[in-house]
Design goal:
The complex is a heterodimer. Chain A is α/β, with parallel strands linked by helices. Chain A has two domains: 117 residues, Rossmann fold, CATH 3.40.50; 109 residues, Rossmann fold (3-Layer(aba) Sandwich), CATH 3.40.50. Chain A is 53% helix and 13% strand. By secondary structure, chain B is of the alpha/beta class. Classes of the chains: A alpha/beta, B alpha/beta.
């Protein structure tokens, strides 16, 4: 099974270890993982900012880079959702590209969904010890149906106990460019999320989208919390990389 | 509409923040409980959306059906192109019937038109009788901050102070006592007003009726006691049949207030008949366009399905954080961020379509499945197409999208960026002030990057570990 890894621009820039954790999880599960080195961004920032031509151009580039694989997997429900849900709609007037986009969309998965739904893994290599609480990211949850998959995988780690926070499905306030256009509102929404995280008493908050995690970590630290770990689910599931 | 300045003030308003926190829990929890009653909530939403689509896809025909039936019941049907025409028509009706005082049940169209102000200028006294609207009216005509709970931004203490000041009564904080006090004031108005003015939740084409969903009983006083009743509502509010009304009513109160049915639900048809004791002698429908006809058949057509339940704002993380006034016009929250640009001008509401995280909580709770995030995104696209976004943003986006199409240049940019951010963080794991995006670090830190990009580390790993 040849899997194309869509790293995402945030993981590339900020947290390469999440990319390596994803690689490890996929390879441990028996996939042949290819990381196309020309990949950049899925185009979601352009699409969400009203730059349709920019979004279309980047979608075409991504489709061309990834359509040769059996599957495309990304450690992000947000970028995954852009490819799976939004790409086909970008090509209303270009039927050939629409078909290629639709074909790619049907083979594109968020990491935990892929591990559970397609690979049906029995075990994961991680070894985390402690209480974690899970933040459901918006696109993953509401567009891609990512809810039980990461929890099912975390449950395979003996040392992990999951303590759900209040409002785990509520937005953390990140919203991509929203976080820098309306920084004050974004941070105020993040504060509610962080209050819930702290109230859960978990030693780590785990999520599947780096954008949310950077937002949450930044807010927790500004609030003076130095002890709550903020981890991508891939890092927890993969253990040391 | 200075959204960002409004936001800053609202975030700093400690009382408002407390009130918003209170309201959020109630709306969200009650709705979640109430929808459990329905065997298949999602299928009911589909049915409701289909009813609304049927109407808005042939709006002119359904409006003609409604008009014919309404005329048969003895009502008069008037058409208003905009808010100014609403005011003119209502004042004409009032003058014709020698009206000096109008009692009002809730009408958002009246807010759109600025009707109270126009009535006062014409020497006619408008009296808001919905408790929330009454509170706002006696507080210097403050605008509503929510479409169904207009005074949700106010605390009990604020209302206690207000009533003490306005009514000249001893200050009290007992809610039933405060309500009784308002009722005593309003009772005299109910008895003396010559004209009642209401909105309309739905117009039923098959019977020419208006359906009213209220919780305080004021709607009945307003629509049955005065000799003249004027219904002001948007042209998109028509639905085909009473059967359709029952489908929509399964969703509206549950989505709005978490009630299986509102305390009062009236279907008002025609003028008082000779053998009847109650009801108006004259019934007027003022059906308002105010931008709606232009939305028909266009990119934002689906927005016309809206049944004004307020669930989108109740569940919106942004609305929950800043309240309704910050949005600057009549309609707040996600539906407002779509409607305000459409009805008040896309160029007058540059911030609103962007004032959302696109979390889609609104789309999930919408009883008629309006894809609000998609509509907000489309508005952003229209702004870009029309060159309404700031030049720096447009250039920045195009430049970024261009660079992202040049893999080598992008890789270089990313590795320089990662090092720069790492340098900003110094020895720490965070950046306290991000010069490239100062908005981010206003209220939170920016975590430091690892320092090298994934693609660099991956290339290094590949060259050091030969693979089969």
């Amino acid at each position: 099974m040849r899997v194309g890894l869509f790293v995402t621009c945030l993981v590339d820039l900020m947290r390469p270890r999440i990319g390596f954790a994803t690689l490890k999880l996929l390879e441990t599960a028996g996939c042949e993982v290819i990381v196309p080195d020309t990949q950049t961004c899925c185009g979601q920032p352009a699409w969400n900012s009203g730059d349709a031509p920019g979004a279309v151009a980047l979608a075409k580039k991504t489709i061309a880079e990834f359509e040769g694989f059996d599957y495309v997997v990304s450690p992000s429900g947000s970028c995954g959702d852009q490819i799976r849900t939004e790409y086909p709609g970008l090509f209303a007037d270009e039927p050939e590209w629409r078909d290629r986009a639709t074909a790619l969309a049907s083979r594109t998965y968020e990491l935990t969904d892929f591990l559970v739904t397609v690979l049906k893994v029995d075990s994961v290599p991680g070894d985390y010890e402690g209480t974690v609480t899970y933040h459901d990211s918006c696109s993953g949850l509401r567009s891609m149906g990512i809810k039980e998959q990461p929890r099912a995988l975390l449950a395979k780690l003996k040392g992990v106990s999951l303590k759900e926070m209040n409002g785990c499905e509520e937005c953390c306030g990140f919203g991509g460019t929203f976080s820098v256009k309306f920084g004050e509102v974004s941070a105020a929404i993040a504060e509610r999320k962080c209050d819930n995280i702290l109230a859960s008493g978990a030693q780590a908050v785990v999520g599947g989208d780096l954008g949310c995690l950077l937002n949450i970590e930044g807010k927790l630290r500004r609030m003076g919390d130095e002890k709550t770990q903020v981890l991508h689910v891939a890092e927890v599931l993969a253990g040391r990389v | 509409m200075h959204f960002k300045a409004n936001v800053h003030a609202k975030l700093a308003d400690v009382v408002l923040q407390g009130n918003l926190k209170n309201a959020k829990g109630k709306f969200v929890t009650r709705r979640a409980e109430a929808i459990k009653d329905l065997d298949d909530f999602d299928a009911t939403r589909d049915a409701a959306a289909a009813i609304r689509n049927k109407v808005i896809d042939n709006l002119d025909l359904w409006l003609e059906c409604f008009e014919r039936k309404a005329l048969d019941t003895g009502a008069k049907v008037l058409w208003a192109r905009d808010g100014a025409e609403v005011c003119r028509l209502v004042i004409e009706i009032a003058k014709k019937h020698g009206v000096t005082k109008v009692t009002k049940s809730k009408s958002m169209l009246s807010e759109e038109a600025g009707l109270n102000h126009a009535l006062e200028a014409a020497g006619i006294q408008p009296v808001e009788t919905d408790l929330g609207e009454y509170i706002l009216q006696v507080d210097n005509n403050e605008p509503p901050s929510h479409i169904i709970a207009p005074a949700v931004h106010k605390s009990l203490d604020e209302v206690a102070d207000l009533f003490h000041k306005v009514h000249g009564t001893p200050r009290k904080t007992d809610i039933p006592a405060l309500t009784r006090e308002a009722r005593e004031v309003l009772r005299a108005h109910f008895l003396s007003a010559e004209m009642g003015l209401s909105g309309g939740n739905f117009l039923v084409a098959e019977t020419g009726s208006v359906a009213l969903v209220t919780n305080e009983g004021n709607g009945r006083m307003v629509t049955t006691m005065p000799k003249v009743h004027v219904v002001i509502t948007g042209i998109e509010k028509v639905i085909p049949t009473l059967e359709d009304l029952s489908t929509l009513m399964r969703l509206l109160p549950r989505s709005a207030t978490g009630q299986s049915i509102s305390n009062y639900f009236s279907i008002l048809t025609g003028v008082k008949k000779p053998e009847e004791h109650d009801g108006p002698e004259h019934l007027y429908f003022v059906l308002v366009d105010s931008g709606r006809a232009d939305v028909v058949g266009g990119d934002f057509h689906e927005m016309l399905r809206c049944i004004r339940c307020g669930a989108c704002m109740n569940h919106c993380p942004v609305y929950q954080t800043i309240g309704g006034h910050a949005y600057g016009w009549v309609y707040p929250g996600p539906m407002g961020s779509v409607l305000t640009p459409l009805y008040a001008g896309i160029e007058n509401s540059i911030d609103l379509p962007h004032a959302a995280t696109l979390c889609n909580q609104c789309g999930i709770v919408c009883p008629v499945k309006i894809p609000l995030p998609d509509l907000l995104r489309k508005l952003r696209e229209k702004q870009t197409e029309r060159g309404l976004r700031p030049l720096t943003e447009r250039i920045g986006l195009r430049l970024w999208a261009w660079v992202a199409q040049q893999p080598k240049l992008y890789a270089l940019g990313a590795s320089v960026g990662a090092r720069y951010l790492k340098w900003l963080a110094g020895d720490t794991d965070r950046i306290r002030l991000l010069p490239a995006a100062p908005e981010w670090t206003l209220g939170r830190d920016f975590p430091a990057p690892q320092g090298k990009t994934f693609r660099e580390l991956y290339a290094a790993r590949r060259s050091s570990t030969p693979r089969a």
